[in-house]
Amino acid sequence: MVMANKTIVNWEAKEYVEYKKNAGWYVGLAVVTLLLCGLAIWLKQISFLILIIVAVVALLTYTLRKPRVLHYSLSDKGLSEGNNLHTFDQFKSFGVLEESTHYSIVLIPKQRLAPRMIVAFPETEGEQIVDVFGGHLPMEPVKLDALDKLVRWLRI
User: Fold this and answer.
1) Between 25 and which of 21, 66, 120, 143 could a Cys-Cys bridge form, CB atoms 3.0 to 4.6 Å apart?
2) CB within 8 A of 61, min separation 6: which ones?
3) Rounded Cα distance, 131 and 136, in Å
4) What is the pLDDT of residues 117-142, one digit of tens each?
5) What are the Cα distances from residue 64, in Å, to 4, 26, 153?
6) How far does Cα 56 stand from its chain's mean position?
7) Across-strand partners of 14?
8) Beta bridge partners of 70
């Protein structure tokens, strides 16, 4: 017998928080890049020099790209991100992360080395979203890990 996949709530959110970067951010990146390139040349480490250049190009490509707006829907089966369904049984718990005006659900996977899934949601839908997750998963306190804090501090 197939059970219907009843949608409970829908929302749209950017795939990541877009931080504004002023000219100082780009000047700082250029200074750090030149210092590291100078160090690589002084140490005669060509592979390190190439790594720095590739990393900076990748970072610039990523930071200049506008975040996509993703469509999410929460049903009795799990969370759909576009056409991808993440069932509740893939996660051991969830938590809510609040940063100034941004709210996110943090899903903790059952797989040992799998990354946490962080999904932004609008404040207006927050109570309903938390209630649905709370009906399927235990809630636990969550906070940003060191890498998340670094990414936010660097405004990437």
Assistant:
1) 21
2) none
3) 9
4) 999 999 888 899 999 999 999 999 99
5) 41, 11, 17
6) 20
7) 69
8) 13
Please state, in angstroms and rounded to a whole number, the distance separating the CA atoms of residues 142 and 138.
Answer: 12
Closest CA to 79 of 113, 115, 110, 120: 120
Looking at residues 10-39, what average pLDDT do you find? 92
Q: How far apart are CA 83 and CA 71, in angstroms?
A: 9
Provide the token pair at 6.
Answer: 């009843």
Record the tokens describing residue 21, joined without a space. Answer: 């970067």
Residues 6+ apart with CB under 8 A from 134: 94
pLDDT at 153 over 90: no
Question: Tens digit of pLDDT for each residue in 73-104?
Answer: 999 899 999 889 999 999 999 999 988 778 99
Q: Could you tell me the maximum CA-CA distance found in the chain, to the nearest angstrom? A: 69
- Whether 106 shows a pLDDT value over 90: the answer reads yes
